[in-house]
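Take one record.
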Amino acid sequence: MRIADRGNGEAQVFTVTHPFHPLKGQSFEILVVRKNWDEDRVSYLGAEGRFRTLPIEWTDIRERELIVRLGAGRAVFRADLLRQLRAMINEIAARNGAQ
């Protein structure tokens, strides 16, 4: 997915946070964040101008929540139906606890 600009023309940047990475503390402009080699990675231009990638876990880029990644833009359950299911489970548990 392409990272959109902030609307004010400023580039989005990230900082390398991995404690043992030689670039720790350095910031780079984000070119794109996408899944490469079965993990989310950020792409940027290194100091020498070459295209580079890092796992987002090694940066200050906030990883999408698991439910968002698993849902991939689609909802499997509606919130109102999940609330109804929870109410039914609570009712059954209360009945079983009363016996």
User: Anything to note?
Assistant: Residues 1-63 form a domain with the SH3 type barrels. fold (CATH 2.30.30). The longest helix spans residues 79-98.
